[in-house]
Amino acid sequence: MTAPGEDTQRRGNPALGSLAFTRECGQCHTTGDGFDLTFFGYADSTIIRRAVAHVDTTTALHIVAHIRSLGSPRAREDTRLFQPGGTPLGSDVGFAVALFGADAWPAGLTTAGLRAINPLQVRIALPLPMWSDEGTNLDWMPDAPLPEHALRFEGRRVEGALAGYRAAPSRENLLRVVMALRAAERTPSAEQAPCLFDDPARFKPRECFEIRRWASNLVAQHMLRSGLMSQSLGPELHDIWWDVGNAARRSRGSADPIEHAVENWASWMFLGWAFDPSRHASVYTGGGFRQLGLPRHATFIALRSQVARRERSPAPYADLLNAVRFAPTHWARNVAEFGFRHLVERLEAGDRPARPEQIAEARTQVQTALADANRKVTPADREVLVQLAERVLTLLGPA
Ligand code: HEC
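# heme C complex -> structure
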């Protein structure tokens, strides 16, 4: 008696399976070697069922033998990669209670205290994508191979970079692939670039979403292989995850919106943002969460971004305004107070936006944040906020 797994392995030839995988599966399973199918431990029967959509049964058995020769599974197939704590929480309020111990923005939270909170470790109520979900597009697997025009762009730059990465999978070579794909999907001179959001005649939401998922998949497999799942590969690489979310977000205004656009928007932007909260406008990263009825998450994203911004950045002022707008009414006072105080700290340390037009914009954002907060708080709280806003405006000085 042999177990079914051993039986199929004996019938298949791993060397033939490896060649077949690269040729018939690698255009979507991005690394081209089947690493992902080994890592997530798909059953032989699942691999065969999926394989026979592309190859004959004999080849499918070779592929199974190849996948098994790569080693043992390291994660369950229903793993949600990077999901803080492993599983999503039940609700927006549950998120606040788990993080802060109550449904409130903590009055005593300091800049240093908020900075010490690692977004990769804070449990959230939004389910992040699984590797493969046959029922929806909420997964890491791109539904389509890279289009020929992308491979061809700039003297077959993507194709060359990909061959280089597959031969020597270093971070530098990975970056070459991602940068080549970025250029192919968004450069206006690339005749068929699909991610030109502002040109309705040229923006192709699905193709844009799929190319970006393809690049994201490759980056994720690079991390899985290294085993260093909480270590940033650098913003140039994680930004492509955020960009998947932006393709989903922008698709909503197009003639051909993608399915589950808001879930994809929020989850992919979160994936990119969590590795470097200093990047990207919080109106977008938090906005997806707000659309999903998760305003506490959105508020956290805005203020966690605010404390992460680089010196001389104008973004902390926009973050204040976004936080006040996202905050549930009973959070508004503490949220506004936190945001204003953080700006005072920055300004007192000599950290102001660099350009006069940024200062003018920051002044407007402070005034708008105050007006928005005033609609949500009691008259007594208003006094406190007015004083803080005055202090920020004085320190900011005239534009
Ligand atoms: C045209 C792109 C494409 C090609 C080519 C392709 N796959 Fe996939 N594969 C996918 C996508 C997309 C998924 C994710 C699930 C879904 O959306 O159906 C997936 C998922 C899988 C899964 C996991 C299924 C599950 O239970 O969730 C297996 C196993 C698999 N593919 C095997 C293969 C093998 C083996 C080959 C080559 C013989 C192959 N695939 C070729 C796109 C492709």
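# post-check
The two ends are 82 Å apart (CA to CA).
The chain has a mean pLDDT of 96.
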